[in-house]
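Record type: ASSEMBLY
Status: queued
Input:
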Amino acid sequence: MESFLHYLSMPYLLDGILITLQATALGFFGGFALGLLLAGMALSRNRVVSGVARTYSVIFRGTPLVLQLVFVFTALPHVGVVLSPIMAAGVALAANEATFFAEIFRSAVLGVDKGQTDAARAVGLRPRTVLRRIIGPQAARAAIPAIGSEAVSTMKNSALASIIAVPELTLRSNQLASATFDYFSIFFASGVMYLVLTGAITGLQLTIERALDLSRVGRRGRGRPAVPSTVNEVSVIETPVATKELTATRNVNGVVSRAEAVGRARVALSISDVHKAFADHEVLRGIDLEIRKGEVVALLGPSGSGKSTLLRLINHLETLDTGKISFDGIEVGYRDAGVPLPEREVARQRVDAGVGMVFQHFNLFGHLTARENVAVPLRWVHRVPKDEALAAADHLLGRVGLSGRAHALPRQLSGGQQQRVGIARALAGRPQVLLLDEPTSALDPELVQEVLEVVRSLAVDDGLTMLIATHQLGFAREVADRVVFMADGTVLEQGPPQQVLDTPKHPTAVRFLRAVHTVEV
Amino acid sequence: MLNRLLRPAALLASAGAITLLATACGSGSPATSGNAPAYAALASSPTCSQLRTQNPDLAGKTLTNAINPHTPGYESISVSDPTKYEGFDIDLGEAIGECLGFKVNYLPVAFDALLPTLQSGQANFIISDIYATKERAASADFITYSKVNDGVLVAAGNPKKLTGIDDSLCGTTSALNKGFVEVPLVEAQSAKCQAAGKPPAQTALFDNNADCVQAILSGRADAYINDVNTVARFVKDQPDKLARATAVTLPYSIGIGVPKGQLPIRNAFTAALTEVQKSGLQTQLSQKWSLDESAIEAPSLVTAS
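Status: finished
Output:
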């Protein structure tokens, strides 16, 4: 016991801890940086790039660290690269750890819900911003426990550097044991030292986890509380999206004139002969539609009829097989000659075309509060200063009746509230055309109305051009200017709501409407 | 939000930067070259003076000695000051260094890494109780300084009745260092055992002597075969648990390893070693380190050709 304590406080071994920390730091930070690069390469669509990363991983993950250490220390000098023992250890450790870090990062990125990327692309974020602002922060949280464990593993692996003359803790313990024959006291002492070091790493890991824990966010309150809204929920809705032409026309000339006004408006979105197949499955087989400015079109049809795919093609979340989709001349995703554009230019096109999207599953950014979600397009697409963007977000949240929940995280909101935030986020970019992909399908029945109210106000008060995939027949009848009935990737019939809903011609439409009606009643 | 995420990251990064900085500035391996000359008489001898004039490339330099510091008496860290190495080989290297005018730095590596370390240029020479065999001469030139006498270390009372590298090893396990010359000898004996219908002579390979001795103490091995002085030292340390079974004469010499074919350094070392022996210093050093059974041998070369 006495000699154990003697070794525990021996400067020679304590100095060894310093070298162990240096080797660990070199391996950890070097491996972290190289791992980021490797993960990026592995996720690349370029096969050569991802192949290089894969080959690297196969080699460095597939060979013992001992060999790598000896290789760097004794083989590299033969080609003129002479590293000091500690640097050689750092290089070998980093090269080895990088493969593990790369897999941690890659799985963390892949673990972020695909809907997050969809939503980020839909609001017009460029790929780099998507990675930095949306995927990165969420992946980082998911990766922290594994990174912590990798740090511990790096420290333990640094003991192997003893074989290439790095005077770290293990080498010193070995040498001391050889000189004193006091084998067990020494190794118990160095074991305790390693435990303290790895325990400290674990402590650091838990601290960081705690600091980033989203479930603590709401309780702490993020930033200043929003000004409490005195306005009523939903009922008071202003019109920041401009264009009151249609409503104005209606006020002067009576109810009929809305249809006339829509008919006179210019075409905002034209879809011609659009085809799309996933593998062998043909989802869309030639869709032609023209949507006029201010028009509200309800897309009806059974599941699998291609409604969602059509919406995702319109803002180029999916690529077209053949056909053409044009917003007033802008074909999102393509150059003039139909040549595909890189994603960062597509992002700008989405903004230029003014196309927004609301998702069935909301796809709110999970790490951001409601107001931060709404501010995303303003801050990171339109480059509005943060304070201004958040103020505008608060205003929009007021419009959808959620002023009181501005500081809540998506996970703390009900489905209906989340969807209202989703709509506010889509409005923040001041869209010309809003695509709504079954906005109420994922909601409990009692929450459907609050979302429909918001959508209705956008149509009636704002005159926003909207394309809504929905199963809500009553809503379609009340709000839509036109109902388009789709099945099996084609438009079976379309026309004013009364016509299509009350006197459908096609047997499939008849059957479908009867079935939906039965459920609704 | 991002601030919250970045703060710990920044903390980590700065911690890393500090460590790297410390590394860059930092403490390398323990170097031992004393400042005051320990062998003034040797250094001031006409031969050494002449050698320094003849070898301006060595004088004033610091050369690196690759060692496997796990053999107390020959080379190990000093118990009183663990930042220093001590032992017969250490003193011999320092003496040659003083004669030729260079200081010595040490690189402690595994025994089987000694030769690769020299070949890679990470070290300039090896003085680490290494036997100069023809096989090893493929990787380095050796200048011999002592004859080899091996001893067999066993548990007290020699329970397996071992008598050397012979049929008594059949069915036993020898704990040896990786790269020891005894490894092929025991393996050859094992083949003989099996040819005679006896159980093989096993080897258990370790990275240093202390681990080999632990293998005997824990009952995992029956024998450890190495330099007789080293064996004697282990017995002296734990006489109630360890014993020396027998001596084994091997047809080898202990040598200083220098890079292959580099005649200037090889000749300089040979001349300096001859002077060390002539001055009686090697005998003094053997006595100082209780290498009672060492047999000084006039320097001769062991090379591949």
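Annotation: Residues 265 and 293 of chain A are 6 Å apart (CA to CA).
Annotation: Chain A has two domains: 2-212, 245-354+431-520.
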